[in-house]
Design brief:
Strand order of the largest sheet: 1-4-3-2
Distance between the termini: 41 Å
Largest sheet: 4 strands, antiparallel
Strand content: 15-25%
Radius of gyration: 19 Å
Oligomer: single chain
Structural class: alpha+beta
Helix content: 25-40%
């Protein structure tokens, strides 16, 4: 994922923290307007300016920060090796997109995190 910062001379560009785009004529997949994550801080923010970061998707190259898994056969086989090693790690829980090598929508992220806590983390804490 590549990011491009855009500064606007307006108080609010999108009216929400994150706007996703799937239109063929929009070159980026998501835009993030950070000030909208914290509306309670409205009075301390610059009322006439805002910053938006656009996310541009592309295939990752060596040295890139991994954001999303690509499920090729070779990657699935490599993940199976990591998964086997992870199961041998006591008192360790691997989770999230990179820990499970899956893409999750946000509602699935929350469900998976809560389930992992209940089933795997809470029992460790109870010891």
């Amino acid at each position: 994922v590549d990011f491009k910062e855009i500064r606007y001379d307006e108080g609010d560009h999108f009216g929400c923290p994150v706007m996703n785009f799937s239109d063929a004529d929009v070159p980026y997949t998501r835009a993030i307007e950070f000030k909208n994550f914290n509306p309670e801080r409205h009075d301390s923010q610059n009322p006439d300016k805002t910053v938006v970061w656009e996310e541009y998707s592309r295939f990752a190259e060596r040295g890139d920060e991994p954001y999303y898994p690509v499920n090729t056969d070779a990657d699935k086989a490599l993940y199976a090796q990591y998964e086997a090693k992870a199961k041998a790690e006591p008192n360790t829980v691997f989770g999230g997109r990179l820990g499970t090598y899956k893409y999750y929508d946000m509602h699935n992220v929350i469900d998976t995190a809560l389930t992992a806590y209940e089933e795997r983390v809470a029992p460790l804490l109870a010891k």
